[in-house]
Design a protein that fits this description.
Layout: H1 6-15, E1 41-52, H2 61-66, E2 71-72, E3 91-101, H3 104-117, E4 119-121, H4 125-131, E5 144-148, H5 149-159, E6 166-171, E7 182-185, H6 198-201, E8 209-211, E9 217-221, H7 267-284, E10 302-311, H8 324-334, E11 339-347, H9 352-361, H10 380-387, H11 389-392, E12 401-409, E13 421-427, E14 434-441, H12 443-447, H13 452-463, E15 472-474, E16 479-481, H14 511-538, H15 572-575, E17 591-592
Parallel strand pairs: 1-3, 1-6, 5-7, 6-9, 10-11, 10-12, 12-14
Antiparallel strand pairs: 2-3, 4-5, 8-9, 13-14, 13-17, 15-16
Helix pairs in contact: 8-13, 9-10
The chain binds zinc ion.
Zinc ion binds next to α13.
């Protein structure tokens, strides 16, 4: 049922473009607004790296530091897939690294705590699979400890003295005589529609890392597992997807040995790679997939998630498998400064036009339609529902921002070529601006634990800007990457508290999501204010400025698009007409079933 494509992830890397970020204003921004300028807001961000159970001699300090970036300037990731830059986000972070090694007393207490809260059990399916490898250097013997991941995060954040900035904690229990084989779990959130508890039920959700619940800390423990999510139980096969490239993953700590999976001298570099390509790029200071400010309501307007439930299975009712109050609660908690509405309209049964479009998009009905302009039937979802927007999205207030969601309650057979797909947050197929959300549920999916609510929150999270914690952008290298080949280990970013991961362990947005979104919005709104102020000052009728509706249709009227009487201001996105380009959305958008 997997629909991951590692080949496509590699293509994303190749196609990524390097964009010159405008030279930041070096001056401090104490002068307040700067009319007409795009200001780059710089922030010093401490990144603490704490080693527990590692000896100072285990880590080559310089080799580790050499892997880390000095800075990060986030970009809007989607427009570059069309070869055009996204909006200048006006942000730049300067990192300040602090490395420290905890002493024997701290370690003794910490591992004592781990032993105390751990629950003994048999080795996981994947630990046993590791034992069955030809090249494993040891066997994981039971009983192993199942340790609650959020509790460990909480313990660490309390006992590390709450340092400023972000913290990566590298844990190595294996070095000590009191070592126990162990995995981390998160079992406190079941799917709100099906009640299925992925964290409790599935061996694939037993982890080696966690963070971002209520702290700015992420721990990563190579003495835990081996685990499924980064496939580090597999020490026999370098190339997991058979595409001819090694899928680079960090093995358990005891495999860093002569005759092991990885040379011991690679450890410092490996932990550096995890710090940079997971901790920093994907969790602490990530880049948004879509421009969050595109979804800003006008003054006085709400953010609205409008779900059209399209009933395409006579034997079940999709509305039984979505909880709009749950959806709303996640967003009001995430961005409490907006007014939120979540509305649901049931099309029972699905209307014939929408059904025809759905059959075309899933390759069950070979007919020409609007998709032909895009050379792929997958475009039928976007083009049909965009052309017929007024039939499905009611008139809300002009000031509102409406995210349109199309939820297909259907059957396994009707999913056709899209079998295994839970949903995706589509763009406009022109310049990488978010458009509509499409999501799917069936009796088969529900028997695997998936209702509509989690998919709705996840896809809306993309629509409002957020990336996955397993794919992202490296600012200094200037490339986009996903969890494949050289960056296979990026899957470990999923082992963090966010609904944007694929693990189905968290139903809400986490600390890292909030930090990133707030920075995007802070810089965005300030630069909008600068632009607005510049327009006002440049206008001969500046004194008569007032808010107007500028009559643009199909384009969000921004709170900053006010105009002086007699002149019209146009949003930056409209100024340069982007070249029309036809691309399938990046595969990183698709939300697949995951075993
Ligand atoms: Zn997703």
């Amino acid at each position: 049922m997997k629909k991951r494509s590692f080949t496509l992830f590699s293509i994303l890397i190749i196609l990524s473009l390097i964009f010159a970020i405008p030279v930041s204003a070096k001056e401090k921004n104490e002068g307040g607004l700067r009319p007409g300028e795009i200001v780059t807001f710089e922030q010093k961000i401490p990144v603490n790296v704490v080693f527990i159970g590692y000896d100072k001699n285990d880590i080559e300090r310089q080799a580790f530091l050499d892997t880390l970036p000095a800075t990060y300037a986030p970009i809007v990731r989607y427009p570059p897939f069309y070869g055009i830059p996204g909006r200048d986000m006006g942000l730049k972070f300067n990192f300040e690294y602090n490395l420290s090694f905890k002493n024997a007393e701290f370690s003794r207490k910490f591992f004592n705590y781990m032993k105390g809260i751990g629950v003994s059990g048999d080795p996981t399916f994947f630990q046993t699979a590791y034992n069955d490898q030809v090249n494993n250097v040891l066997d994981v013997n039971g009983p192993v400890l199942y340790i609650d991941a959020p509790s460990v995060e909480n313990y660490l954040s309390k006992n590390l003295g709450n340092p400023k900035g972000y913290t990566v904690v590298f844990v190595n229990w294996y070095s000590r005589p009191d070592f126990r084989f162990h995995v981390y779990t998160k079992t406190d959130e079941a799917d709100p529609d099906t009640g299925y508890n992925f964290g409790a039920e599935r061996p694939s959700r037993k982890m080696i890392a966690w963070g971002g619940s209520n702290s700015r800390l992420w721990f990563y423990d190579l003495s835990a597992g081996p685990e499924a999510w980064t496939n580090n139980w597999n020490v026999d096969n370098l190339d997991l997807d058979g595409n001819g490239f090694e899928d680079y993953r960090m093995p358990p700590i005891w495999e860093y040995s002569s005759g092991g999976f990885r040379d011991p001298s690679a450890l410092s570099n490996d932990l550096g790679l995890v710090t940079r390509f997971v901790g920093i790029n994907l969790l602490f200071t990530s880049s948004p997939l879509y421009d969050p400010l595109v979804t800003a309501p006008e003054a006085g307007g709400d953010k609205i998630i409008h779900v059209n439930m399209l009933e395409d299975d006579p034997a079940s009712l999709g509305t039984d498998w979505i909880n709009m109050a749950e959806v709303r609660s996640r967003f009001t908690k995430f961005e409490p400064y907006y007014g939120w509405q979540t509305n649901l309209v049931d099309f029972n049964p699905i209307d014939t036009n929408a059904q025809r479009a759905f059959r075309i998009a899933t390759d069950l009905l070979p007919e020409d339609d609007c998709w032909n302009d895009y050379f792929t039937t997958f475009a039928e979802f976007f083009c049909y529902f965009d052309q017929n927007r007024t039939a499905y999205i009611p008139d809300y207030n002009d000031a509102d921002y409406v995210a349109g969601v199309y939820a297909f309650n259907t059957t396994a057979d009707n999913l056709g070529s899209q079998s295994g797909l839970l949903g995706f947050a589509d763009d406009n197929w022109v310049d990488g601006t978010q458009s509509y959300i499409f999501e799917f549920d069936t009796e088969d999916y529900r028997s695997s634990g998936y209702g509509f609510s989690i998919t709705t929150i996840h896809e809306a999270g993309h629509h409002f800007g957020l990336s996955h914690p397993h794919d992202g952008y490296d600012s200094e290298y200037g490339f986009d990457y996903g969890p494949g080949d050289d960056f296979y280990f990026a899957w470990s970013g999923d082992e963090s508290n966010t609904i944007m991961h694929y693990m189905d362990l968290s139903t809400d947005f986490g600390q890292f999501d909030q930090d990133n979104m707030y920075r995007y919005e802070m810089a965005g709104y300030l630069n909008w204010s600068n632009e607005l102020l510049g327009s006002i000052l440049a206008d001969p009728n500046a004194k008569s400025v007032k808010k107007i509706s500028n009559g643009l249709t199909n384009t969000r009227i921004k709170p900053w698009i006010v105009s002086t009487v007699g002149s019209t201001s146009t949003p930056p996105a409209m100024r340069a007409a982007p070249t029309r380009s036809f691309r399938r959305p990046p595969v990183s958008l698709a939300y697949p079933l995951h075993p």
